[in-house]
Amino acid sequence: MAPEFVTPNETVVEENTPVNTVVMAVKAGDRDEGRNSYIEYSLAPVPGNRFALGPVDGLLRIVAPLDREDRANYSLVVTARDRGNPPNAHTLTISLRVADENDNSPIFDPKQYSASVPENASIGLSVLQVSATDADDSLNGRVRYTIVAGDKNRDFSISEDTGIIRVAKNLNYERRNHYLLTVQAEDSGADVRYDSATVTISIMDINDNAPVFLDSPYLVYVMENMAALPAPIATVTAFDADNPPYNRVNYLVKEGDKSMFSVNATSGQISLLRALDREERDQYTLTVVAMDTVVVAVVMVVVVVSAAGEGQARCAARLVRHRHHCHHRPFAWGENLDFKTAI
Ligand SMILES: [Ca+2]
Ligand SMILES: [Ca+2]
Ligand SMILES: [Ca+2]
Ligand SMILES: [Ca+2]
């Protein structure tokens, strides 16, 4: 009679189990007597097979390391043969599955990412997607993404599952124009493994700041009867928080006596073109605007004509509101001067 196998035809073994470990004991029974009941076991040679079977004891051992990521299933064809003449034999195909161990870390590819975002980007805008893969199975290979450094304010968010980085808050180039994020990918195995990548995000400037006259209004004292003309009498300056070219400001006189005063478009320097006569007129009001190609700021410049011979020096300094530091007489703002228009 042929030997009959009494062992199951499937088994599971952990990957990375040490070489020489016994996976299972293959056993066949033979109801014959004596010599005819001695059983010899053999394993059909298969390329890449990492197992050996003891011919007498039927112990199935690992002879080379198992790597589930390399191969997860083996079909082992085992033969049990008695020593009868002629011998009787029986074969059994054992399905051997290699169980996963969390022996691979997630790997970012690439490890460095970069993108640019305009500062007026909408919240939720997708910036880029990072990607890491993990060769392990199920939870051992499931990757979750987090931003671990470089963004304390949480201006950006990352989708834990997809690795998509999005704008999470209103950005502002003038507040921060560059981010260097550290992104981590970790698997979901019991003993967590992880990798990290860097994400550079550049914020692009847009023209979202209007020029602002910080010193407003300007009060300028000018001597009458000046001889050397044209002569600079004051410089108005508007500040624009944007970066070039969005902070380039052009100045022009919008209202006022343009035959008497001019402003340099780029420097903001105001020049007197013709001699003043205090007896004819003792005060001028100019409205100067600063433009950054999109938006406009307005400032009032009050020119007070000083009498020649009163010993007061020509003063071209900027005067901020009531902080006069360049004239000796008290100056009363006229009721008809409305500085609220200086925006
Ligand atoms: Ca893993
Ligand atoms: Ca594995
Ligand atoms: Ca601007
Ligand atoms: Ca800007």
UniProtKB/TrEMBL annotation:
The family database entries (Gene3D superfamilies) matched by this protein are listed as: Cadherins (2.60.40.60)
User: MF terms per GO, please?
Assistant: beta-catenin binding; cadherin binding; calcium ion binding
The domain of life is: Eukaryota
The portions of this protein that span the membrane are 284-308
Membrane topology type? Single-pass membrane protein
Q: Does the keyword NADP apply?
A: no
What Gene Ontology cellular-component terms does the record carry?
catenin complex
Give the location in the cell: Membrane
InterPro entries to which the protein is assigned, alphabetical: Cadherin, Cadherin-like_dom, Cadherin-like_sf, Cadherin_CS
UniProt record, GO biological process: animal organ development; cell migration; developmental growth; establishment of planar polarity; establishment or maintenance of cell polarity; homophilic cell adhesion via plasma membrane adhesion molecules; intracellular protein localization
UniProt KW keywords: Calcium, Cell adhesion, Disulfide bond, EGF-like domain, Glycoprotein, Membrane, Repeat, Signal, Transmembrane, Transmembrane helix
Q: Which SMART domains match?
A: CA (SM00112)
User: Where would you say this protein principally sits, based on its record?
Assistant: membrane
Instruction: Indicate the segments forming the Cadherin domain, all copies.
Output: 5-108, 109-213, 214-319
Q: Which Pfam families match?
A: Cadherin (PF00028)
Name-wise, this protein is: Cadherin-related tumor suppressor
Task: Give the originating organism.
Answer: Portunus trituberculatus (Swimming crab)
